[in-house]
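Render this sequence as a predicted structure.
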Amino acid sequence: MILIDLFLGFLRVGCFAFGGAYGAIPLIRDVVLSYGWMTEDSLAYMIAVSESTPGPIMINLATYVGSSQAGFWGAVMATSAVVLPSFVIILLVTALMNRFLKNSIVQALLRGVKPCVIGIVLATGIHWTLGTLVPPAGEQFSIPSGILFLILAAMLFGSSFFGKKKISPIALIAVSGMLGILLFP
């Protein structure tokens, strides 16, 4: 019976959770408290833990609640139920998308949106770069930030000019993490 309750409770969360994980927290709260699976305090604690662990909050909470109530199979049921609606919607969108992508109007729309998305990503990158390198009025320039920027830019652009293969974004992230540890003790 508990497995069915876990599945139905978290299926309801998965079906009606719009607006991301923070929009789902009230739904999760209602389900968890109405079934008596957790107290208000333990739920607040678990939300904080779920935010600090890798993965979506809804899935982390569903897995934890399911596990605490019915062990491994409870975790499987709650997690499956919370992701099932999104999975079905993605399957439907994918099936419909193949047909719509062949439509000339949709293709024209996507060709028009692509430069806009590139511009937004580029503007965000420039904004973050300038925000890091150009200090606000009254603050001093961060020499370690400038050094880190120059090293990463040299790696990125140097690999394009001198190497046949671009450097991996994962390698850039790893190098920037190590340099961050060294430059910002």
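Summary. The chain has seven helices and no strands. The mean pLDDT is 85.
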